[in-house]
What does this fold into?
Amino acid sequence: MKLSLRQKADFYRELGQLVRSGTAFPNAIKILLNDTRGPVRKLLVRLQGAVEQGKSVGEAFAEQYPAVSHLESSIIGACARSGRLDQGCVYLSGYFDRLDIARSFIIKKSLYPLFVLHFGVFMLALPILIPSGNVHGYLKQTLGFLAVLWGVAIIIALLGSILTFEGARSAGVDGFLRLIPGIGKLRRAFALSRFCATYEMQLQSGVNVIDSLTSAGNASQSGMVIAAVRKALPQLRGGAQVGPLLSGSNAFTPDMVRAIRIGEETGELDAELKRLADFFQQDAVSRLEFLAAFSAKALYFIVVVYTGWQIVMGYYAYLQKVESFGNLLH
It folds into this structure.
């Protein structure tokens, strides 16, 4: 059972609306079940079953992993405990809505260059088919090239998926991914946004600092952040402040650490965390949109290179024929 970004955005928006109107969580689930189908309905049925067994809202969501991520269960659990479930739903709905918009932007930007690439592959190979009628050579030229191209793309996608999965657990892998131009800062922005949002909501819910920081680290889905939090826990139990402990890790930006330290000193940590969460989320979305535009240009570049290569090879073959004909005359 896997929900799309749009399904998650709509689910949390509708759940938040019902809770905000005064509807109890169990009744909200029943109302949503009336007109819901597919993966969302399966999730609702499981949530309803968990609540009927006496589980809390946070526990019910946590049991739905991996359909429900650590980020979602942490925020929902914290907000439900503090009576702010609707606010948690608003945050998650906006979060998944922005991701869905960014993903749609990437797809739209990529469709035309992908079409041009495929069209160019088949059109530029027509001299092989016409007038000789060499269908086998034509298909070998076109489908062979596309098979290699898509094979490389699939391998890169699978490798990226594996590294992303490991990066959420391993500080070493996460650190390696942060070195990749474009991708590294994008991952960091999303991770820090999730960290700050979860940390702020946990504190607002009255959760102690150690549990709040632990939940925020897990919700960040960043191996470096999780490692930094684990390293800080022993000193936190001894009464140390969070800000100075985070300053020794490369997982966080200097500006973020400074803002947290000032927030702790002034008693306005909640406000600083909310501001940081919004800032990093906007930064992440902007970087994602830039990456989408860059990917589209990269596809155009591939089209141009392939077209140029085909033209050069065509002229080369033509010149060889002319040279062979000239040799026969002599």
